Amino acid sequence: MYKNGTFCLDLKRLGHKGLGRLCLSWQHLGRVLGIIVATVALWLTSATIAAIDPGPTAKVWGKLAATGSPQAELPRHTDTAITLGTPIRLPALEAPSKQIGPTELGAPGPSTWVRLKVKKGDSLDRIFKRHGLKPHQAHILAAYPLGQAFNRLKPGQHILIRQIKGKLLELRYQLNLAEQLRVKYPPSGYKKSSELTITRHTRQIETRLRHVSGVIHSSLFDAGINAGVSDGLILKMVEIFGWDVDFALDLRRGDSFALVHEEYYYQGEKLKNGGIVAAEFVNQGHIYRAIRHRTAANQYDYYTPEGVTLRRAFLRTPVAFNRISSGFSKGRYHPVLKKWRAHKGVDYAAPRGTAIRATADGKVSLRGRKGGYGKTIILRHGGTYTTLYAHLRGYNKRLRRGQTVKQGDIIGYVGSTGLATGPHLHYEFRVNGRHKNPLTVKHPHAGALASELRRSFQKLATHWESRLNLISRSTAPMQAAQATTARGKADG
Predict the structure, then answer these.
(1) CATH of the structural domain 107-202, one choice from 3.40.50.2300, 3.30.450.20, 3.40.50.880, 3.10.450.350
(2) Is 162 helix (H, G, I), strand (E, B) or coil?
(3) What is the DSSP string of 293-304?
(4) CATH says 323-436 is which class?
(5) pLDDT values of the chain reduced to their tens digit, one per residue, 492 residues
(6) What is the torsion angle, in degrees rounded to the nearest 10, for the CA atoms of residue 335, residue 338, residue 344 and residue 345?
């Protein structure tokens, strides 16, 4: 019944004897109808979703509604009391952590592996501390004989660790190309070294030989790139032939090289380049060849096909330089003294601070200032030879007078002390006290193979020379084409 804006319902007439009349205003009636419609719509939506895909959440809610016992059907990961109407938190999916790089270290690849890089001055406990691990875990490794390897870490190396929330589970360290140390920690924790497991694992490395050749058009390194040769191998070739070829001054367009070098593979994947086994360099028509051979001291060295070592007693140059600013001369106008005088050495222009290396094994006879030379080092090599390095910026801090140095050791740094107009190294070479031109003096060979090793070496040298001959033939057409192009430019 509707009367005066009010809707009334006589409940007695509907059979409810204990109830009277129920009256609602029009506004109240609208609210009640809205609640009824929303409830029906929500029920229909839930029923439709459940019919399409009754997923895990729908099943849980279905069981809750059917049993009326919500806590009994909650997922096991939930540890809080939940009643009907409280949202259920489903477990979050674990985001995969960053995977490590290539598997050259033998890592199995789970997401918990992390690669740690060794920095200069690092120790294992310092690395652990930097990455949130307890340093004493590194100290315990020292109780193992195999664990002593961690006391010889080198910058640039990597250590693989597997951890969970700061707890170290496993560690791996590559000793060399074939051997790896593996350390396993008990998951429940440990208190002494006997609870750890440390083992050495070896993998089978395959060695392959690669033949390459190239012709110099613009620079040696460009020729290496065109031939697919790494800069490291080019530098090694320069080191091998550096006694006979001045790669800063003697190179010409049309010079060529040929190499046979090793490559290391593991399960078909290349790991790195190996050493040069045989090499040839043609400089201005002169052919130089080198064959690798193991010495009596179980070390590799390079020899000519005749068995004479390529290693001289002296390096050709003591510094990496941009140019020779002044050569050896009997008369040169001195830029500081403003007068003509003999220049009894060679000046190598180089950036300030460039490292200077000893050109041969010797003993330090002077480390200090020497008049117009400025800061100077003089090395004595036996009773015959001496070398002088002048205008230095500074010395190797560990260098002392009377100390013995090895060929290639850094002894000082390029500067401009004394009578110098700019940074450079003044280098002198003396034989029995007499100055010689360092660029033209004939350095003595360091030695030759012993007679008992000559026979085995000759067989080896014959084999590799035939290989080099084949490679050189493949390079000959490129040399001929280069020579033709050069002649054409000259005629034009």
Answers:
(1) 3.10.450.350
(2) strand
(3) EE-TTS-EEEE-
(4) mainly beta
(5) 555 556 565 655 555 555 556 565 656 666 667 777 666 666 665 555 445 444 443 443 343 333 333 333 333 333 333 222 333 332 332 333 333 333 333 334 444 788 888 888 888 888 888 877 777 777 777 777 887 888 888 888 888 888 777 677 888 888 888 888 888 877 665 555 456 788 888 989 999 999 999 999 988 999 999 999 999 999 899 889 877 887 877 889 999 999 999 999 988 999 899 999 999 999 999 999 999 998 767 778 899 999 888 877 888 889 887 678 776 565 554 555 455 456 778 899 889 999 999 998 889 999 999 988 999 999 998 778 899 999 999 999 999 999 999 989 999 999 999 988 889 999 999 888 888 888 878 777 777 777 777 888 888 899 999 999 888 776 655 555 554 554 455 455
(6) -10
Integer CA distances (angstroms), 108 to 114, 165, 174, in order: 12, 20, 14
Claim: this prediction has a pTM higher than 0.90: no
Q: Do the domains 206-311+448-492 and 107-202 match in fold? A: yes
The pair of structure tokens assigned to 83 is 């009643």
